[in-house]
Specification:
alpha+beta, Endonuclease, Chain A, 4-stranded mixed sheet, 3-stranded antiparallel sheet, 10 strands, elongated
Length: 317
């Protein structure tokens, strides 16, 4: 029972036999237990529906020695996502996400609700903290990037750093240690911007599609201004211009009031703020760049504004 409490109520047949419980006694006791998979039980009175963590333990025990939660499952264990975020389907009928488990060097047959992947021993690092066993946060993040498109890779990399689960430097070092990683060059490219301070998909797109293609002066991301804890998304310090990129959520009602209060405080400190939303950057990056350029030119930037292939003929008119 002590071991079960350490494993979210889950024990395997192999563990029970190792503790001296006979096969006959296991057969009798298991009548009152919930069978999560062949030879894996959730024990205790009135067990009810198995919680997500119990299912993770079941997957690790099914995988055997050296197995670890990986991919989306490890991400939920480490705070990079949540089990609810991984579920599929509408409302109360949402289907619990499958449990992803890495198994070193051996094949595990199919089990409903579990995804077992065989790996070469040593190709990923095991997290030193926490049970059930899981991959280290850097490997977890890189594995998610390998199965995602560019938008997904940016999301996972910025989220891991913004939540202070790891750093861009650690992710880069780990990526370089995995030369066969899918999307390796893309991951390294994104990490350059994350290391420079991009903390969201919107800021990454602004760097790639607004600021750099149009020759705008370099910005300081996550710039702390004035006194207190006011932080701007981007700042051109030489010309006292701040640029705020408002994501899809977080800038309505109380958030909008905080934005106005912060903008006013910046103005009193001599800064001018331009604020753009997701639709501005995604639908008209050239127009956003032109607005920033006009303000910078008015405040002494010598230019020039550089047009990109998507720009209209007279972008600053």
């Amino acid at each position: 029972m002590e071991l079960a409490r350490c494993q979210a109520g889950v024990l395997s047949r192999a563990q029970l036999l190792g503790l001296g419980v006979s096969a006959h006694r296991i057969e009798r006791l298991s009548v009152t237990w919930m069978r999560l998979a062949r030879g894996v039980y959730l024990i205790g009175p009135d067990v009810g529906a198995p919680p997500w963590l119990a299912r993770v333990w079941a997957g690790v025990l099914l995988g055997g020695e050296g197995s670890r939660a990986a991919g989306p499952t490890a991400a939920a264990l480490q705070g990079l996502s949540s089990p609810e975020e991984l579920a599929t389907g509408p409302g109360a009928a949402r289907t619990p996400p499958p449990i992803h488990v890495l198994v070193p060097g051996r094949h595990i047959g199919p089990h409903r609700g579990f995804v077992f992947s065989r790996e070469r021993p040593g190709s990923r690092l095991r997290s030193p903290a926490g049970d059930p066993p899981r991959t280290r946060i850097e490997d977890t993040t890189l594995d998610l990037c390998a199965s995602a498109d560019e938008v997904g890779a940016v999301t996972w990399l910025t989220r891991a750093c913004q939540r202070r689960l790891t750093t861009a430097q650690r992710l880069r070092r780990r990526a370089l240690d995995r030369p066969a990683l899918r999307h390796l060059s893309l991951v390294l490219e994104i990490l350059q911007d994350v290391g420079a301070g991009a903390t969201s998909q919107l800021e990454y797109r602004a760097l790639r599609e607004v600021l750099r293609p149009h020759g705008l002066p370099g910005v300081r991301l996550q710039h702390r201004t004035g006194t207190g804890n006011r932080v701007a998304d981007a700042a051109v310090e030489a010309h006292r211009v701040l640029i705020e990129f408002d994501g899809r959520v977080g800038h309505v009602e109380e958030g909008a009031f905080r934005d106005r209060h912060r903008d006013n405080a910046h103005t009193l400190d001599g800064w001018v703020t331009l604020r753009f939303g997701w639709s501005d950057v995604s639908a008209d990056p050239c127009g956003v760049a032109a607005q920033i350029a006009r303000l910078l030119l008015a405040r002494g930037w010598p230019g020039p504004f550089r047009t990109c292939p998507r720009c209209p003929r007279h972008p600053l008119s």
